[in-house]
Amino acid sequence: MSSRRPRGPRRFRKPKVCQFCTGELEITDYKDAKMLKRFISETGKILPRRRTGVCAKHQRRLATTIKRARILAIIPFTEKLVRK
User: Fold this and answer.
1) What is the pLDDT of residues 10-65, one digit of tens each?
2) 49 found inside a domain
3) How far apart are CA 22 and CA 8, in angstroms?
4) Which family does it belong to (predicted)?
């Protein structure tokens, strides 16, 4: 018996491309809450690069922009958790 476990067919994923580099989106300012909420989880955390597909340069700029919007109360720091 081999210690390897059987593998199914491998699925290849399409590589994620930075939406800011391609020109689909722009980090213009901190006032665009609708755009910034795409990069924040439901608990209020900034989503990582591997999840959003943003390049390192734009991830740093995006994080700074989100933090500015939080300080100016445009977007919340956290979402309220309702316990039942």
Assistant:
1) 777 777 889 999 988 888 789 999 999 999 998 899 999 999 999 999 999 999 99
2) yes
3) 34
4) Belongs to the bacterial ribosomal protein bS18 family.
